[in-house]
Amino acid sequence: MTVSPASISTYWDAAAAAFDDEPDHGLRAAGTRAAWARRLGDWMPPGPADVLDIGCGTGSLSLLLAEAGHRVTGVDLAPKMVERAQAKLAAARLPAGFLTGDAMAPPTGERRFDVALSRHLLWTLPDPVAALREWIGRLRPRGRLVLVEGRWRESGQGGAYVAGPETLPWCGGIGAEELAETVRPLVSRLRVERLDGEGDDDLWGKRVDDERYAVIAEVRG
Ligand SMILES: C[S@@+](CC[C@H](N)C(=O)[O-])C[C@H]1O[C@@H](n2cnc3c(N)ncnc32)[C@H](O)[C@@H]1O
């Protein structure tokens, strides 16, 4: 059995209303927001950048990026996630464009971006390596790929995700080393930043004991 995009979209549509209740989703606490803003500031190039936030969810990272002056385009498969992202940016009176579409082929036409950002999306894609290639193809020369990922304890252990999760190659998450090895041949430079150390509790709103990290890569000039 393969997982259909329709079933994934239905799952996330149903999750949208409560999604921001998680501290690291809604970023409602000032300390959590500040921790993510700081990391994003480190990962973005200097000056306002065109950022594609892929699998943007309710737009919490898009909001931080727009607050920092970046020009954000968010894409998500689930219309209800997109609605919430649009509402979040509108409430903050910040510009950003949001599109409903598949991360396997973001519906942004010929546009090119300075940064392709994705947080916690790769695990649910049917072909994550093809997606990574696609995203890199959407970058300008020397553009950046920023992947915030992890390997989560709870995931893939019989929870009520869509039918057929075993066909998703990275369901349950992907380790930093494996993701870095996958991305390295596609880029010119790459570094891994751990997000699960003692000083990282603010990012998650709690102490985490599973693997969390970011891969920050630069594509060829
Ligand atoms: C765990 S949430 C992460 C949301 C957001 N990136 C964040 O960190 O708050 C995963 C998101 O990916 C979206 N998604 C899942 N499969 C997708 C696909 N094929 N294309 C685009 N978005 C997808 C879901 O609708 C959901 O909003």
Topology:
Blueprint: H1 5-19, H2 23-26, H3 30-43, E1 50-54, H4 60-67, E2 71-76, H5 79-91, E3 97-100, E4 113-119, H6 128-137, E5 139-151, H7 176-183, E6 189-194, H8 201-204, E7 211-218
Helix pairs in contact: 1-5
Description:
Strand 1 (50-54), helix 4 (60-67) and strand 2 (71-76) form a beta-alpha-beta unit. A 7-stranded mixed sheet has the order 3-2-1-4-5-7-6, sandwiched between helices. The protein is an alpha/beta fold. The chain has 8 helices and 7 strands. The protein has one domain (5-218): Rossmann fold (3-Layer(aba) Sandwich), CATH 3.40.50.150. The protein binds S-adenosylmethionine. Residues 5, 8, 12, 25, 55-57, 60-61, 76-78, 81, 102-104, 119-121, 124-125 line the site of S-adenosylmethionine.
Q: Quick gist of this model?
A:
This protein is of the alpha/beta class and 221 residues long. The protein has eight helices and seven strands; from the N terminus they run αααβαβαββαβαβαβ.
Low-confidence stretches: none
- Radius of gyration from CA coordinates: 16 Å
Helix count from the secondary structure assignment: 8
Strand content: 15-25%
Order of strands across the biggest sheet?
3-2-1-4-5-7-6
